[in-house]
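Quick one:
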Amino acid sequence: MATGLFSGSGAKKRFVDTPIDDQITELRDEIASLAHLLSQRGADASKDVRTKAHNAREHAETGLQDLIETGEQLFADLRSRYALTEKQVRHTVRDHPFATLGAAAAVGLLIAALLRR
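Output:
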């Protein structure tokens, strides 16, 4: 990198002694160097952000897949429990029809009493 205005006292003295055209050229070179450095850092930061976003997306997709699989498994388990409970209720109703009617009547009276209040 070329010596600049802020490089040190020796550079300042040399900067003052050099012709204006040389100073302008040197400043242009320093500005170009700074622009290149900023561009490079911006590109590196952009690459970092893209990498982090990609990693976050992969993590989210993996979590979503796990959630879907767990949900499907819970749904299948719930379906099988519902089928088993349905069989048990049907079996109980067939074995004890009068007790079932009495229980249904009691539940109906309870609901009616609660709704009157």
